[in-house]
Amino acid sequence: MGMGKNLKMKSVRVHKDMTQADLAARVGVTRQTINAIENGDYNPTINLCIDICRTLDVTLDDLFWKEENDE
Amino acid sequence: MNKKYDERQRWINYRLSHHALIIVFVLLLVNGLVRSSFEVTWAAPMAETFVLIALPTLYYITRSLFQGAYVGRRETYGKNGLAFAFIALIFLGVFIASGDAFIADGQLAQDSVLLLAGIFFAYITVLHGVKYFSENKRV
């Protein structure tokens, strides 16, 4: 179920000075789930995407929208 | 909705449950063929049942644990590991104390279930230990 690494999410998280465990605790998932999303190993539901965006204070487009020539 | 697990954990557990079910079907089929075609009885009924249940269960637990989907969001590897270690010790202790044979008349004996259950839970304990230390090392 690979979809390419989500480097935008990792970048925003690091910029907010949060670890994967911090973000996971805030969103209510395990650290491995955040890790899987960042590595492109898991495709999150829209609800989880929204929770992550709200926690990181960005929009869905900022984190999850991909142009056709991305990757 | 099960709040103990997050959505990725549920997805993994559904997928692995499906795999485990297929393994059960294959094991039952192979066992049935061996027993009926070759008239081979390789274990006493309870031991046979235990093996047929344990193999897919171990597959499920091993993969689920290493994909971080077995213990829920709270990731209680340490506590779970200790609980499984306690159960393993009880089974192994009872088997050793009973002095029963593991194999009798060329097949797994009825009381071999105690040893098999001990090994089963000891294996799960080791898995939890490995996961516990790998997670703690990461932090």
Q: Mind explaining what this structure looks like?
A:
The complex is a heterodimer of chains A (71) and B (139). Chain A has one domain: 434 Repressor (Amino-terminal Domain) (Orthogonal Bundle). Chain A has five helices and no strands. Chain A has helices at 7-15, 20-27, 31-38, 46-56, 60-64. The longest helix of chain A has 11 residues, at 46-56. With 139 residues, chain B is mostly helical. Chain B has one domain (7-138). In chain B, strand 1 and strand 2 (107-108) form a beta hairpin. Chain B is flat.
Give the gist of this structure.
Chain A is mainly alpha-helical.
The whole-number mean of residue pLDDT values of chain B reads 91
Terminal residue distance of chain A: 15 Å
Annotation field: number of helices of chain A:
5
Query: From the alpha-carbon coordinates, what is the Rg of chain B to the nearest angstrom?
Result: 17 Å
Largest β-sheet summary of chain A: none
Approximate strand percentage of chain B: under 5%
This entry's quaternary arrangement is heterodimer
CATH class of chain A: Mainly Alpha
Helical stretch count of chain B? 4
Mean pLDDT of chain A: 89
Whole-number count of domains of chain A: 1
**Estimated helix fraction of chain B:** over 70%
- What's the order of the H and E elements of chain B? HHHEEH
> How many β-strand stretches of chain A?
0
CATH homologous superfamily of chain A - what is it?
lambda repressor-like DNA-binding domains
Principal-axis shape of chain A: globular
